[in-house]
# Entry
Amino acid sequence: MISITQVTKKFGSRTAVDHLSLSVPRGEIFGLLGHNGAGKSTAIGMMLGQVWPTSGEVRVCGFDVTSQRNKALQKVGAIFEAPVFYDYLSGWRNLEILSSYTAPTSRERIREVVDWVGLTGRVESKVRTYSHGMRSRLALAQALLPKPELLILDEPSDGLDPEGIHEMRNTIQRLHRELGLTILLSSHLLNEVEQLCTRIAVLQRGRKVFEGNVADVRAGRGRVTLKTPDFAAAAAVLLGLGLITATSEGKFISLGDGHTTAEVTQALVSSGIAVDGIWQHEQTVEDFYMSLVNSTTVAPDSN
Amino acid sequence: MYFAQLKNELWKLFGKKRTYIGFGAFLLAQTAMLLAFRFTRWQSDFERLLSGNGYLASEFISALTVSVVMLMPQIILLMPLYTTLVGGDLVAKEAEDGTLRMILARPISRFRLLLVKWNAGIIFAAVLVVALGLTALGFARLLFPWGGMFVFAPGQTFSVLSSHDGWLRFAMSHLFLALNASVMLSIAFMFSCFNMKPAAATILALSYLFVNVVMEGIPFFDRYDDWFITHHFRSWLLVFRTPTPWAQIIQSEIILVAVSLTVFIIGWMVFQTRDIKS
# Structure
C-alpha cells in the first residue's frame, strides 16, 4: 500500500528525512516511531503529497504521489494530532465539506460513518462544543468517509486522556478487524504501538535505524536470561561450544541460530555449572526503543 | 463536484463572524455619514454648490446623490480593508489553523483548491459591494426623496442625470466596483498563498494599494497613471460621465481582470511548491 524508496527531504540545509525506504503491505498495522523531529511527520506529509520530496519516490496505493497525487489518495484517509475543524460549523457540515474534496458523498454514507464512530446525536452541534474525544471521533469519521483502504494516523492519541487513548486503541483494532484497513500509525505511545502494530520502523534524525516485526522485538532477538552462580564461567563454556553468540549485562545471553535453552542448560550442567534459572527474555517495545536510541549513532540505512 | 466544493467554501466563508465585520462596519459608517450629511452643514454646503451651478437643490439632493456621496469615502477607506482582510484569510488562516493539512490529505489538486477559494472570495467581494450599494441607497432613501442625480465624475467636474438614468448608472457602477473589490481581494489572496500569517497577507496587500495611491498622487508620476492599479479603480465613477467613456472604462476593466488573473497565477505557483506542514 505504501512504498517509499530512497526518499530524502531537505528544508534548506537541514535534512529532515535521509534516504528513507519503507514498505507497508496491505492489511498491516505499521508503526512509525521516533523522537520529536525524527522525520515522522515529514515522511507522512510526503505520503500525502503535502511535502515534496527532494529526491526518491513515494508510492501510495500503487501510484506515485508526486505525479499522480489524486489517484494515489483516492482511497486514503488521514488523521493528524490535535484534530482541527471549522469550529463555528456543525460536525455534519464539517464532514460534508471535507468529503467534498474527495468525491460526492451521500447523506446515508455520512450517517453510516457517524453511527460507526459513535457521534450520533451530537453531529448537528457546533464543533466548538465538542470534547477532545469527540473531535477525535469526528476526525476518524472524516477519514472513513471516502471508504479508505489505507488509513494514515499521525499521533492520533495526542492530547487524549487515558480513557480516550484506550478508546482510540480499540477503534484502531476495530478498523483493522472489521474494515480490513491497512494502517500506518505514527505515535509516541510505545505501549500503544506494541499492542496495535504488527511491524515497526524507528526513525532517528531523519534516518531509519530499525525496521522489523513487533513479535521479533518482543522476543528480544533471541536474548535469554541466565541465572547462574558463575555467569562468566558459564558464558565461556557456552561461547566455546558455539551455543551463544554474545552476552550482556552479566545476565543475558544471545542464542546462536537454531539453538535452544534446553541445549544451553544441558551443556552447563554437563560442565558442572549450576543453573538457577533460564528463560526467554521478553522485552517491551519501549525497552527496545530506548536501547536502540541510546545505543545508535546513526548508521547508514541498510534497507 | 466543483459547485459542491464552491458551496462548501461559501459555507466556510459566510459561517464565521469575521466575514461580517465588513458588512457591520459599512452599516455603521453609512448610518454615521447619513446623519452627518443630514444634520450638519454638509447638506447646506452641497445645496449651495448645486445652486451655484444653476441646479435646484430640491431636485438633486436625492437618495441617489446622497448614496454616492456616502459611498465614496467608504470605497476608498473601508472596502480595501475588508476585502483584503477576507482575502488574506482565505488560505493563510486555514494553514495557520491546521485545516489546510486536513484538506490536502484528500485527492484534490492544489490548483482546484485555490480556484474554489478564489471564486468564493470573488463572490464575497461582489456580495459586499451589492450590500454596500443597496444599504447606501436604502438608508439615503429613508431621509431623502427619489430624484435626479448629481455626482462628481473624474475628468468632468460633475455630472447631472435624471433619476432613471442615474439609477441605471448607479447599478452599473456597482458591477465595476465589484471588480475593484475582487482585485483587492485577489492581491491579498496571492499573499495568503505564501507561507505567512493571515494578518501579514492583509497588511502587505493594503501596503501595495497604499503605495499605488501615494505614487499616483506624486505629480512626477502623472504620465505613468496607467501603471497604477488605483487609477483603474476609478473607472466605476467614469460610468457617471456624459458621454460615458466606454473605451477608457473597458481598458481599465481589462487591466483589472488581467491583474486579478496574474496575482492568482502567482499565488498558485507559490502554493504549488510549498510544503504544508503542521
Remarks:
- The domain at 2-217 of chain A is CATH 3.40.50.300 (Rossmann fold).
- Chain A touches chain B through 38 residues (CB under 8 Å).
